[in-house]
From TrEMBL:
It comes from Crenobacter oryzisoli. Keywords: Endonuclease, Hydrolase, Nuclease. One of its GO terms (molecular function) is endonuclease activity. InterPro entries: Phage_P2_GpM. Pfam families: Phage_term_smal. This is Terminase endonuclease subunit.
Amino acid sequence: MVSPARAHFQRVTAAEVAASAAPGKPMGCSEYDLMLLKLAEDNRRLKGIQSMETRADIKRKLLPDYVPWVDGVLAAGNGAQDDVLMVVMLWRIDAGEYAGALDIAEYAIRHQLTMPDRFARTAPTVIAEELAEAAKRARDGKAAFDLEQLQRAVDLTADQDMPDEVRAKLYKELGLLLEPANPPAALAQLTRAKQLHDKVGVVKDIERIQKTIKNDSAGQPGGS
């Protein structure tokens, strides 16, 4: 954990450098280079661990060290390419810090930042796919997932190019989360998911929700 004085210095430095850097060009300063070195060291530590659950726990412990840098960039950044920021975005998803990840995603999409070279996916694709996978894991484990954050991911990536299969997965998870409170909205999301990718696996879900809507309609005054 960085000291309060060090955290303040990092936050101020990040804000100053990010504000003066050219949009789309790599961030350049000694403090950024130090953050890259720390990121490389932390990545080497993570690569030696096979358990994804353990990796997520370690990322959760490491992430506070990056908060001052991230806060500074988000507060004053002008859109310079920042690989530290983009990896932290992904780590926050892995650690379950979805709101923080989406704060970075909003900045990254607005400024068209890219993932570091070792990543094959675009930033919007990463956001859509990783949030959908996180929601699916929660659903498979019968755990709650934050509907607001998943809806935010859908809204942020709505106009971004990505594989149809990825967007379909995101719409599927949103639809299933919406089902208990709003079956018609859930049906619309699942139907769109199937249009995008017919093997996304929503046929039975659609049939179930259609039946629910029909039964609810029949139970209303004047219903058949």
